[in-house]
Write a structure and sequence with these properties.
By secondary structure, this protein is α/β, with parallel strands linked by helices. The protein is built from seven helices and seven strands, in the order αααβαβαββαβαββ. The chain has a seven-stranded mixed sheet with strand order 1-3-4-2-5-6-7. Helix 2 (14-31) packs across helix 3. The termini are far apart. 29% of the residues are buried.
């Protein structure tokens, strides 16, 4: 192959070529020709196939992302949860699901409009999540976090307090920058802080994805019904119902 041909037909890495080899072989067989033609065909087909595959992978990745926050979405979270549940069953490694929900989110939209509400939702992505933790927007103002490592309730307590402090500090700063969109809004109706509700569930081998998520979700709703300002751990009872225990109280 001369220099011109080399420039026109980029070299494909062997590891990548193997991904599209079946397609390349079909193209090569259809076109035929002498050895040189087949070699050029092989390279061109491999390059084109890989470009298409990369585009598909890129689209698939975007399909699992939440465009507003930049976090993963519910579809990805459910897949990730099933994977981590299976791993936890094999290894007995603890798995926790934390359900995160904004408090009284409608008041932000009322005071600052939907664009202001979007800015507030984006603050979740700024929390100090670890790289080995899975976090996603489940829908609306609700988020989920998976923690697949040894952790005590005290570890979770400290982590959640850190989240609450940061969202309060950063949120208060953000709120001062948002213009009010509702005329003659009672000052008492203008939010001056951002708070989150947390519900926690620890994985049981008998859990299904639905029951695991439900337990954390109901723990969060229990907190909201009880006046907020604490975190509930959802616990399965032998009778199949869910009890709640206070994990942290901020006083």
């Amino acid at each position: 192959m001369n220099d011109t041909e080399q420039e026109v037909i980029p070299t494909v890495k062997l590891s990548e070529y193997r991904k599209v080899r079946p397609i390349v072989k079909k193209v090569e067989e259809k076109i035929g020709g002498d050895a040189k033609t087949r070699r050029l065909t092989r390279r061109a087909a491999a390059f084109a196939s890989l470009q298409m595959q990369r585009k598909v992978e890129e689209l698939e990745e975007h399909a699992l992302e939440d465009s507003l926050t930049g976090l993963k979405n519910r579809r990805w979270f459910m897949q990730e949860m099933e994977t981590k549940m299976a791993s936890s069953r094999r290894t007995n490694k603890p798995l926790f699901l934390i359900y995160i929900d904004y408090d009284d989110f409608k008041k932000y939209n009322t005071a600052f409009g939907h664009s202001g509400g979007d800015v507030i939702l984006q603050q979740i992505a700024k929390l100090p999540f670890r790289e080995d933790e899975s976090i996603a927007r489940l829908g609306g103002d609700e988020f989920g976090q998976l923690i697949n490592r040894e952790a005590t309730e005290e570890d979770l307590r400290v982590m959640i307090i850190r989240y609450q402090e940061q969202i309060r500090e950063e949120g208060n700063r953000v709120l001062t920058t948002l213009p009010h969109v509702t005329e003659n809004l009672d000052p008492k109706e203008v939010p001056n802080s951002i708070t989150l509700t947390f519900g926690v569930a620890k994985f049981n081998p008998s859990d299904s994805p639905k029951s695991f998520l439900k337990r954390a979700n109901e723990a969060a709703h229990y907190v909201k019904r009880s006046g907020k300002n604490f975190v509930a751990l959802g616990i399965n009872t032998p009778e199949g119902s869910i009890n709640f225990r206070n994990l942290v109280n901020n006083g």
